[in-house]
């Protein structure tokens, strides 16, 4: 049974969300110029923050969706958001939702261009009053997979997404890559892989701050897309793999004013190899997975390290200290679809004959910002497609000011990323 589990962390698809390439040397960090794409359709831009109404604490990864459209964005780790809406939708409203809070609907006419402060309240219903009709948590999880053909889109969809990769050495950003990608999303009942095409991208890497090692993230946008665990259940949700986990109910909650079952899971004690642990959030009405937040068990750091590293120098050892994952789904017309995913990794590099270690933090995230049904079932040509082994920083070239993104929705940069961008722009001026 264990061998059936281990294959998923060794095959080429699963390894793309867990792997790095570590290589010696310095690479050319010259910048290429990017052409600013002028706005041709016209859009309004809104900035603001989503917080808890009582504590004023920022709500991280809250969802904002323009009603009667598929346009959406999320807040960053500081609760800030940036939403771009075509002017033809100016009379619509925005739905703001967050797990465990009562959703709000606000007319776009009531939004300011900047400094919008949205306060969400925890829902009034007591969590204990949410009725759990299924007593066996593992059976509930397996039922989620059985119903994916009914609960999730079962037709091809064309998606637009924003993807960001960052690498920090301690507190300093040493690499920043961003991209707008197009996705041919395959039906959830299909075994065909999703297809990606790079639409716009920019990067900046300061290799002088990476010691003698250049770190690259393998997989690029495929890494975050592969976290769609309903489309790719071999991560830990197949019948066979589920047997290696213990499942238990936690207190129920709500999202978008809908009752949600919360299921905790962790690997069974007798299993020594590193697997996952975390929480699954399951819609009580449809039994669809709405969100998952989980981590890789790093108790045996040596075994875990072998899962992450494709190649590294002999004089260095790489020790993972954090591996956190998140995936969210959104409901539209009675069907759920992949909307956001995030990978956050921290590891230490120890060098032979060196007194100090280096600590690196990497974050990879993707937000679906718009989509439409692929009515004509037209797919990207082979030469247009990104490969699952892509390294985004190699595909992207140059960096430019934020106007580069035009009307595309992006995840609002955190303050630390904004500072890094300003430094990059100053270097470009020089």
Topology:
Blueprint: H1 2-6, H2 12-15, E1 20-24, E2 43-52, E3 63-66, E4 72-74, E5 80-86, E6 93-97, E7 104-107, E8 116-120, H3 137-146, H4 148-151, E9 157-169, E10 172-185, E11 195-205, E12 213-217, H5 221-225, H6 239-242, E13 245-255, E14 258-267, E15 276-283, E16 289-296, H7 301-308, E17 309-311, E18 316-332, E19 335-351, E20 358-373, H8 392-395, H9 415-429
Parallel strand pairs: 1-17, 2-8
Antiparallel strand pairs: 1-12, 2-5, 3-4, 3-6, 6-7, 9-10, 9-20, 10-11, 13-14, 14-15, 15-16, 16-18, 18-19, 19-20
Can you give a write-up of this model?
The protein is mainly beta and 430 residues long. It has two domains: 2-33 and 127-429, no CATH class; 43-120, Sandwich (Immunoglobulin-like). The chain is 14% helix and 41% strand. The chain has helices at 2-6, 12-15, 137-146, 148-151, 221-225, 239-242, 301-308, 392-395, 415-429, and strands at 20-24, 43-52, 63-66, 72-74, 80-86, 93-97, 104-107, 116-120, 157-169, 172-185, 195-205, 213-217, 245-255, 258-267, 276-283, 289-296, 309-311, 316-332, 335-351, 358-373. The chain has a ten-stranded antiparallel beta sheet with strand order 11-10-9-20-19-18-16-15-14-13, sandwiched between helices. A hairpin with a 2-residue loop joins strand 13 (245-255) and strand 14 (258-267). It is globular and about 65 Å long. The model is unreliable at 1-18, 22-40 and 126-130 (pLDDT under 50).
